[in-house]
């Protein structure tokens, strides 16, 4: 018993603390609705678009959808809007007229809004909503449908079936996405609570006549279960639901698509699993859930919700990707099922195709869906990030190595760790402070006993260009004499409870209140708290960690706020729950910008790490996967999780290296570092009860192996920063899964344990199992790949075997790429700023190669005014020349910046897979343009190494000494 | 240190002739490798020859990095960096261990030193190693020569350190003297004890004689006094026995009742706490709850949960509580039998199940003792029931004398052992035994009592936590930076006192502390650190470990005086 107790409390999530679909009224109702609909062959969806109301103006179609109430003449009017954007995105929005017009009664005299929540877009959407001028109604629409042609070259069709309502999206005449194909559309309209007499009757039932159809009976059945309409209790908390049932649900089918990805963040594999089945069949029995929550000791391979959620899904099949974005901030569940359509039995040899069906269910708010028709993964992600924004281009330090622990207990402790990294010659950039630095968990204060000299601490860090990140959470300690809570209360910036009083709950400090960042005034106030003059002891090199912003409330239902809490504007917490975390970091982001203005060196990009997030959070900072465990299984799960964040528009993601809970053994810690250097956000973190595990404590050979891994990350920072920039511009993932890289390679669609770094051609396969001397790597195309460390040559496609003893990181370079590096080890990334570059030119099948390099000051927004350099390097096999071309768009700060980079040169060019023809060659010719003119050509030495048993030939250009910011050409011919 | 300085200075002079031509960053001891003019031969790869113009051209040519003594170009030649075949110009089979220790800073006015190549031209003035700022020659940052001021400061500190070291050494001498005195004390004690033991042995012999005399004299009386009334007395005894057994049974029943009740309450309580421990929200930072959880965890760690009763004892107890007859003890059968009276009480155990016998025997003794202690039963004289007072007195005197002898012998053993124990060099730690020092760190005060224990005391009050009891002295190698005030471990071999078996940690080991000692004027705790869960490291200064500075250079006269 004791044994059981100890073990279990270390590894198992407390399932009873979190709802299953069955325990979540609206999910249960809609699943039942689906069961009813799918059971009956005669099911007809009761939603009908009234033909006469259809209007199409300036790329927007509007109309009224009538929801027929079974066995009555009553019709619920649901305004429909279908917008077609210039980007080729279609958006379908369904509202409810009665609520829209405020013609409903709120129960319990609740002081809340009557409308369905319609402000999600104010938080999530930042662009891409220019309506299309080219979209037009096609005159050839079939009877009973309205067909709109839109998108690039009008290759897309949206065919709106009027009765029952259904929408079919086609690309090049082929159906890609279908709405309400299975009839699961459900908008729970407002109704008055009828006092029950003996036999409870759902409203709408009265006056029914005898001609009830089967359909009606079924619907009655589905709609009749009133038990969860008015009130729901869970874990000792009762939700008063003043607006009654108000869910929205829709089925979205992807005919011919077997693979779906997205719905981050979950611990499931990258390719989504079916959710209506059994574990044995490798299916889940609950839908993917999205309800941001602090899930203590979460389990892996589960559709349970986690800290953040992005309701964006992609469906993928050979050479085609499409997607949908379900813009809703309320609790949401998504069922995923697959159906096989058997091929026409007469056409032998053609196998049936698999269709993925999804069923989206949200508790409240608008039904608001964006449809992306691809056809490439990048088209879909690009369109999604055009809407919600791309990844913030972070400060350079933040893509280097972070060292965190709950807690570095004193300022001396921090300084000691800082010195020890230097002493052991292990680079790092950022050290973190968890909650213990505060005076009694009162944010914006220091514990004077343990942190008597915070500025001295930050000064020491700054001496080596290092940063401090400290934590600030949204719960404010409810304690007399604490000025922050006094102001929060007196200025009325806190979240309210259902009665309109300041909500009180428990978190780290004990009794607390929560700042309501939906309120502009509260955000403005929040901004003031971060001023250096206000939070004394913070310096310019300090940045932020926002944790617990789901929000985590220890004594709240499902460890969060009651849904009937009230936010600014009279919106219920129910409506905005998933958006809440984003509003908090948004406020902090603004605060950091404001904090900065008073300085000489203004205009610095904020750095914030968040645990909770929503669509759009990527614009503001980085995320991590929360409180994982020091187990191999968690290391393994971190790869698909980080990949999933990448394809969900929020690629600046990572998991705690070493695992938060528990003590990793040295092999696990070492492997975790070797894997962690491939997380875009690379941070080691540990729970307060764990043993210290800074890399220099591991002892040999572990410390040396870990140092090599970290130094590898540092040497590849130019490639990383370039990948971050690409993501910032296009929304592309920073680390990429196989399906994204090779959308036509069906064998790679399910692969989620290896990753490509940006467009660099680097393919890493982290070892995530104990004692693994060999590791297979999957190559998705017919191309040469070279081992990074010894130039061993592999030929794709298919699996190849790499040896992977502990000291080795399986890492390949794909032919055809040019990888920028900085090989000089430094103490921090800031000290590498003016170091020369090494270019690794990896020649593949064609003999051509290309790569890009993006650099800027790594700190400010000056890059927006042209203060950056962006080069494209190209090697042409046919002419044996390598050149550097400008990709930048000059701005007013371009010149000034390039001047600072004048001395930064390319010190070395390594050509892997060098042609045999270069044998015997000892020189290459370098020509460079200087000040807009070509300088005289120079000869520099070339050192050629012939291939030897399995290893590629390689050559080194010795110190071409060309400026990294200028144009140049090297001829190997 | 000074001698190193002197040596370097000497080299500096020696190399002065070539200093002008020595490439940037080359230390005098490597100057000879850089004397060529046209070609340079890599230091550990003599097969690799490069034009001399490639020395310090900011490109790494030599596999051992020796061509770049003044730049960071070869900084990646390190076992800490990832390796690829193209790291240096040579193929992978050659020796790539860096040939040079770093960038040589002349530091005129202070001590020359090497700064790691990774720090060359990185935009940071590494004044700690390179006070002349020469490692930042590229101009990313201007590092002016601060050797005058740093050297001056260093010499000032060094003087203070020397002075402190002198004082410390004097104190150590005092400690050594004190230790010697204490040692002599022990020796004296041993001698005294020897004499005392001899005396005691004689005394014991005498008393043994006295006792046997007395016994002989008194023997007759005892026999006659017990002869006459045997039968009647036995009858009475049986009756008393029966009553007492009944009484005992009743007592036992009630004690057992209490036991069971307590146990079930304990179980209930443990269940409540278990549940509490399982269900409390660990994210919830309620100090009260945390303390309770902690206390519960400590409790489980020490006692386990659900104290499973000894089922054999339980069964036996059941047995005992049955009527005597069922236990095979029929008092009536004994009422007239002729047996030694006292034996009867105990011999009833012969009728008990064998497994039970020992236990009942011991329990009965305990119970009897308890009853006596509580005044329920009267004490009966020890030894034979009817021993005369004179014999008893004689026996008592003998026992006392024997005990004295035993004590003396033990003391002698302890003292002799003590002399053999390791008290460090010159027996010096002997003088520190029991001396306590403490320091505040965060919310605790930490205490070290030399050769005894380490303690953690919460400032807010509450119980002390034992962090380990002294077990032994060891030597360990440390490598720490020495702060300018000299209060730190520095680098090298140090004495370490191991403290083990402190209070148990939940889900962890018993607390233990390694106290690492370095020379200091005073006994003081410099730093306390939890290296891993419940394993502490204390860095402590004490004059006891000070050593004469072998590298004291010209200061030998002062040294001799100490």
From TrEMBL, chain A:
Q: Where in this chain does the record put each Glycoside hydrolase family 31 N-terminal domain?
A: 79-335
| Name of one Pfam family that matches | Gal_mutarotas_2
Biochemical pathway: Glycan metabolism; N-glycan metabolism
**CDD domains cross-referenced by the UniProt entry:** GH31_GANC_GANAB_alpha, GH31_N
Q: Which residues form the Glycosyl hydrolase family 31 C-terminal domain?
A: 731-819
Please tell me whether the keyword Heme is annotated for this protein. no
Q: Which domain of life is it from?
A: Eukaryota
Where the record annotates domain DUF5110, the positions are 836-877
- What family does the database annotate? Belongs to the glycosyl hydrolase 31 family.
**Which PANTHER family does its entry note?**
ALPHA-GLUCOSIDASE, BCDNA.GH04962
* Full protein name: alpha-glucosidase
The scientific name of the source species is Zasmidium cellare
Q: What is the lineage of its organism?
A: Eukaryota, Fungi, Dikarya, Ascomycota, Pezizomycotina
UniProtKB/TrEMBL annotation, chain B:
Stretches for region Disordered: 377-419
Would you indicate the residue range of the signal peptide? 1-20
List compositional bias (Polar residues) regions by residue number. Answer: 377-386
Domain MRH as annotated: residue spans: 434-548
Question: InterPro entries, per this entry?
Answer: Gtb1-like, LDL_receptor-like_sf, Man6P_isomerase_rcpt-bd_dom_sf, MRH_dom, PRKCSH, PRKCSH_N
Alphabetic keyword roster? Coiled coil, Disulfide bond, Endoplasmic reticulum, Signal
Q: Where is the composition biased (Basic and acidic residues)?
A: 387-419
Positions the record marks as coiled coil are 165-217
Q: Does the keyword Endoplasmic reticulum apply?
A: yes
- What name goes with this protein? Glucosidase 2 subunit beta
Q: Which organism is it from?
A: Zasmidium cellare
């Amino acid at each position: 018993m004791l044994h059981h107790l100890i073990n279990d409390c270390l590894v198992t999530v407390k399932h009873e603390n979190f709802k299953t679909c069955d325990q979540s009224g609206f999910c249960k109702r809609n699943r039942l609705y689906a069961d009813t609909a799918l059971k009956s062959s005669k099911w007809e969806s009761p939603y009908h678009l009234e033909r006469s109301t259809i209007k199409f103006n300036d790329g927007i179609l509007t109309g009224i959808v009538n929801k027929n109430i079974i066995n009555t003449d009553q019709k619920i009017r649901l305004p429909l809007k279908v917008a077609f954007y210039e980007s080729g995105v279609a958006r379908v929005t369904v509202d409810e007229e009665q609520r829209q017009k405020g013609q409903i009664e709120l129960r319990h005299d609740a002081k809340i809004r009557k409308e369905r929540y319609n402000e999600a877009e104010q938080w999530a959407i930042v662009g891409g909503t220019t309506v299309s001028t080219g979209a037009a109604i096609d005159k050839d629409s079939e009877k009973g449908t309205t067909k709109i042609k839109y998108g690039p070259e009008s290759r897309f069709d949206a065919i709106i079936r009027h009765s029952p309502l259904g929408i079919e999206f086609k690309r090049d005449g082929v159906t890609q996405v279908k709405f309400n194909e299975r009839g699961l559309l459900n908008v729970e309209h407002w109704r008055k609570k009828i006092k029950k007499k003996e036999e409870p009757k759902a409203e709408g039932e009265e006056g029914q006549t005898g001609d009830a159809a089967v359909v009606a009976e079924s619907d009655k059945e589905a709609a009749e279960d009133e038990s969860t309409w008015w009130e729901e209790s869970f874990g000792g908390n009762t939700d008063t639901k003043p607006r009654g049932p108000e869910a929205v649900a829709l089925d979205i089918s992807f005919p011919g698509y077997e693979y779906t990805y997205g719905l981050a963040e979950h611990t499931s594999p990258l390719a989504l699993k079916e959710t209506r089945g059994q574990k044995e069949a490798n299916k889940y029995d609950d839908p993917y859930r999205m309800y941001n929550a602090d899930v203590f000791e979460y389990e892996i391979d589960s559709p349970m919700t986690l800290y953040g959620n992005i309701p964006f899904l992609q469906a993928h099949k050979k050479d085609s990707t499409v997607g949908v974005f379900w813009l809703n901030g309320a609790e949401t569940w998504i069922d995923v099922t697959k159906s096989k359509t058997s091929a026409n039995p007469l056409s032998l040899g053609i196998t049936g195709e698999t269709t993925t069906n999804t069923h989206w269910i949200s508790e409240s708010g608008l039904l608001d869906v964006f449809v992306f028709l691809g056809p490439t993964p990048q088209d879909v992600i690009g369109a999604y990030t055009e809407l919600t924004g791309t990844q913030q281009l972070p400060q350079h330090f933040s893509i280097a190595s972070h060292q965190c622990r709950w807690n570095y207990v004193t300022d001396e402790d921090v300084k000691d760790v800082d010195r020890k990294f230097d002493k052991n010659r292990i680079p790092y950039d950022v050290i973190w402070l968890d909650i213990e630095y505060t005076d009694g968990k009162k944010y914006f204060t220091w514990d004077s006993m343990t942190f008597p000299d915070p500025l001295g601490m930050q000064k020491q860090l700054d001496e080596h260009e290092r940063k401090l990140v400290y934590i600030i959470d949204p719960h404010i300690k409810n304690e007399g004499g604490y000025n922050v809570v006094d102001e929060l209360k007196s200025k009325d910036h806190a979240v309210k409870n259902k009665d309109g009083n300041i909500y009180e709950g428990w978190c780290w400090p004990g009794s607390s209140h929560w700042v309501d960042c939906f309120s502009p005034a509260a955000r403005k106030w929040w901004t003031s708290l971060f001023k250096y003059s206000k939070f004394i002891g913070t310096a310019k090199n300090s940045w932020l960690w926002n944790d617990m912003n789901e929000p985590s409330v220890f004594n709240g239902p499902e460890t969060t706020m009651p849904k009937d809490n009230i936010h600014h504007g009279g919106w219920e917490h129910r409506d905005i729950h998933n958006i809440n975390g984003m509003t908090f970091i948004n406020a902090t982001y603004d605060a950091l910008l404001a904090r900065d203005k008073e300085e000489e060196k203004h205009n610095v990009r904020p750095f914030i790490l968040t645990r909770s997030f929503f669509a759009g959070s990527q614009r503001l900072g980085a995320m991590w996967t929360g409180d994982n465990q020091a187990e191999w299984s968690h290391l393994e799960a971190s790869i698909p999780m980080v990949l999933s964040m990448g394809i969900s528009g929020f690629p600046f993601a990572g998991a705690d290296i070493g695992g938060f809970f528990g003590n990793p053994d040295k092999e696990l810690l070492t492997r975790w570092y070797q894997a962690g250097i491939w997380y875009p956000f690379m941070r080691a973190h540990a729970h307060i009860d764990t043993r210290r595990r800074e890399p220099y404590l591991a002892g040999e050979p572990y410390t040396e192996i870990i140092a090599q891994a970290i130094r590898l990350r540092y040497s590849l920072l130019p490639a990383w920063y370039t990948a971050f920039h690409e993501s910032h511009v296009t929304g592309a993932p920073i680390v990429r899964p196989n399906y994204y890289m090779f959308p036509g390679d069906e064998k790679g669609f399910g692969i989620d344990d290896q990753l490509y770094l940006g467009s660099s051609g680097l393919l890493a396969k982290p070892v995530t199992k104990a004692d693994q001397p060999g590791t297979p790597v999957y190559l998705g195309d017919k191309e040469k790949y070279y081992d990074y460390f010894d130039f061993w040559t592999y030929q794709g496609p298919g699996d190849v075997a790499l040896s992977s003893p502990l000291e080795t990181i399986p890492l390949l370079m794909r032919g055809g790429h040019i990888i920028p590096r900085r090989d000089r080890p430094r103490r921090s990334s800031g000290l590498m700023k003016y170091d020369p570059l090494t270019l690794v030119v990896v020649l593949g099948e064609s003999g051509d190669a290309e790569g890009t390099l993006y650099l800027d000051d790594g700190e400010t927004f000056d890059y927006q005014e042209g203060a950056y350099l962006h080069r494209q390097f190209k090697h042409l096999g046919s002419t044996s020349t390598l050149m550097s071309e400008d990709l930048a768009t000059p701005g007013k700060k371009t010149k000034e910046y390039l001047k600072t980079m004048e001395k930064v040169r390319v010190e070395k060019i390594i050509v892997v897979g060098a042609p045999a023809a270069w044998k015997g060659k000892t020189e290459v010719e370098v020509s460079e343009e200087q000040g807009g003119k070509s300088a005289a050509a120079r000869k520099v030495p070339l050192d050629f190494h012939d291939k030897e048993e399995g290893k590629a030939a390689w050559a080194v250009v010795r110190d071409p000494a060309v400026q990294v910011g200028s144009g140049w050409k090297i001829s190997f011919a | 240190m000074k001698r190193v300085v002197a040596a370097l200075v000497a080299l500096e002079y020696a190399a002065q002739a070539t200093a002008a031509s020595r490439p940037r960053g080359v230390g005098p001891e490597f100057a000879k490798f850089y004397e060529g003019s046209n070609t340079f031969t890599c230091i550990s790869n003599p097969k690799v020859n490069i034009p001399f113009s490639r020395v310090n051209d900011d490109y790494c040519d030599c596999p051992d990095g020796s061509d770049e003594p003044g730049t960071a170009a070869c900084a990646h030649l390190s076992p800490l960096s990832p390796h690829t075949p193209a790291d240096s110009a040579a193929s992978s089979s050659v020796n790539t261990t860096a040939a040079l220790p770093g960038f040589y800073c002349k530091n005129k006015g202070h001590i020359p030193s090497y700064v790691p190549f990774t720090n060359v031209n990185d935009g940071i003035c590494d004044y700690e190693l390179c006070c002349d700022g020469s490692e930042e020659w590229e101009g990313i940052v201007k590092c002016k020569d601060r050797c005058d001021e740093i050297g001056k400061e260093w010499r000032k500190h060094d003087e203070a350190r020397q002075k402190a070291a002198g004082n410390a050494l004097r104190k150590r001498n005092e400690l050594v003297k004190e230790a010697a005195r204490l040692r002599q004390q022990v020796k004296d004690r041993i001698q005294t004890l020897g004499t005392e033991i001899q005396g005691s042995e004689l005394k014991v012999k005498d008393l043994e004689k006295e006792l046997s005399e007395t016994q002989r004299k008194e023997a007759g009386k005892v026999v006659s006094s017990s002869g006459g009334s045997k039968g009647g007395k036995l009858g009475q005894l049986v009756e008393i026995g029966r009553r007492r057994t009944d009484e005992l049974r009743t007592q036992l029943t009630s004690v057992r009742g209490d036991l069971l009740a307590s146990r079930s309450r304990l179980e209930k309580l443990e269940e409540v706490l278990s549940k509490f421990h399982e269900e409390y929200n660990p994210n919830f930072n309620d100090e009260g709850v945390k303390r309770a959880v902690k206390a519960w965890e400590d409790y489980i760690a020490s006692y386990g949960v659900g104290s499973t009763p000894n089922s054999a004892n339980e069964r036996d107890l059941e047995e005992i509580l049955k009527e005597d007859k069922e236990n095979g003890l029929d008092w009536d059968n004994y009422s007239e039998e002729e047996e030694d009276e006292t034996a009867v009480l105990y011999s009833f155990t012969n009728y008990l199940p064998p497994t039970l016998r020992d236990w009942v025997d011991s329990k009965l003794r305990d119970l009897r003792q308890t009853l006596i202690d509580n005044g329920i039963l009267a004490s009966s004289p020890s030894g034979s029931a009817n021993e005369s007072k004179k014999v008893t007195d004689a026996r008592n005197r003998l026992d006392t004398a024997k005990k004295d002898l035993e004590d003396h012998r033990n003391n002698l053993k302890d003292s002799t052992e003590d002399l053999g124990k390791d008290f460090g060099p010159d027996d010096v730690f002997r003088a520190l035994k029991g001396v306590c020092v403490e320091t505040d760190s965060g919310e605790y005060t930490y205490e070290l009592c030399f050769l005894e224990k380490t303690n953690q005391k919460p400032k807010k009050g509450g119980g002390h936590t034992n962090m380990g009891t002294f077990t032994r002295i060891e030597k360990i190698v440390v490598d720490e930076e020495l702060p300018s005030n000299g209060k730190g471990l520095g680098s090298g071999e140090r004495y370490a006192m191991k403290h083990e078996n402190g209070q148990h940690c939940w889900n962890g080991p018993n607390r233990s502390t390694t106290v690492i000692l370095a020379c200091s004027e005073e006994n003081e705790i410099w730093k306390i650190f939890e290296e891993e869960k419940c394993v502490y490291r204390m860095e402590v200064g004490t004059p006891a470990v000070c050593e004469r500075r072998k590298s004291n250079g010209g200061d030998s006269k002062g040294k001799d005086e100490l």
